[in-house]
Amino acid sequence: MQKVKRVESELEKEQAFDIRRKVFVDEQQVPLHLEMDEYDDDAVHFVGYNLEQPIAAGRIREIEQGIGKIERVSVLSEFRGQHVGVLMMEAMEQYARSAGMAVLKLNSQSYAIPFYEKLNYTVTSPEFLDAGIPHRSMEKNLHA
Hints:
Layout: E1 2-6, H1 10-27, H2 32-35, E2 44-50, E3 53-64, E4 67-75, H3 84-98, E5 103-109, H4 113-118, E6 122-123, E7 128-130, E8 133-141
Parallel strand pairs: 4-5
Antiparallel strand pairs: 1-2, 2-3, 3-4, 5-8, 6-8, 7-8
């Protein structure tokens, strides 16, 4: 059974960081100093599990009053296509609503845009490079 939870301990935070290192640093060759950044201290982190095994991670932070930014959404390669990403996004959106956020923003890797569009995110920018990877900004109104 798969579940997602908000990180509540240093162990869970390290599990989330480990997933991010495996996906972004090892798999996608993002430099570690770009992946692990100054926002990690203040962001609210989430980790997804398959039984007790950590398999997904993500974080959210409020960037302006009522506006959240979802970042670092990652799923281990062997668990992709099993709706883990959807569970991650649902958990972060539920948290955002409870924290009073009305709009969520994110920067999607271009190949993942269809995933976010299915969750009612809309592209709001032309393509740009982040860590050498093509991205586009997207957003969603949580009250729509």
